[in-house]
């Protein structure tokens, strides 16, 4: 949760572009909406513009999640190499 990590406080203090515009993080619907923390629209009835926004942001979010998955897989591989080296030293 952003409260636990001080994320909202840090964003409010530091998340501005060079020309002073507020920058934001896009989270899932569980997070509270703030200037620096945005989420998909959750209304029962969405306008076409709201639906388009949700679809566009969802596609970006998927790409970011793929990148996180790649990073996690890279670290698993490096961890595997370390474990293999340790095992090899023990048994060879």
Question: Could you give a quick summary of the protein structure above?
Answer:
The protein is mostly helical and 92 residues long.
Strand content: under 5%
Distance between the termini: 47 Å
Per the principal axes of the C-alpha atoms, what is the gross shape? elongated
Q: What helical percentage do the residues reach?
A: 55-70%
Order of helices and strands: HHEEH
Largest sheet: 2 strands, parallel
Tell me the structural class.
mainly alpha
Radius of gyration: 20 Å
Mean pLDDT: 78
Number of domains: 2
Total number of strands: 2
Instruction: Trace the largest sheet across and list its strands.
Output: 1-2
Uncertain ranges:
none
So how many helices? 3
What does this entry look like structurally?
This protein is mostly helical. The chain folds into two domains: 1-39, no CATH class; 43-92. It is 61% helix and 4% strand. The protein is built from three helices and two strands; from the N terminus they run ααββα. It has helices at 2-5, 7-14, 48-91, and strands at residues 25-26, 37-38. The radius of gyration is 20 Å and the shape is elongated. It starts with a helix and ends with a helix. The model has no long low-confidence stretch (mean pLDDT 78).
């Amino acid at each position: 949760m952003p409260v636990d990590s001080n994320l909202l406080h840090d964003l409010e203090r530091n998340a501005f572009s060079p020309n002073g515009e507020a920058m934001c993080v896009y989270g899932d619907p569980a997070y509270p909406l703030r200037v620096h923390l945005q989420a998909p629209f959750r209304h029962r009835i969405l306008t076409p513009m709201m639906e388009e926004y949700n679809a566009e942001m969802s596609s970006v979010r998927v790409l970011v999640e793929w990148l996180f998955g790649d990073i996690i897989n890279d670290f698993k591989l490096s961890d595997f190499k370390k474990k293999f080296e340790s095992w090899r030293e023990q048994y060879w």
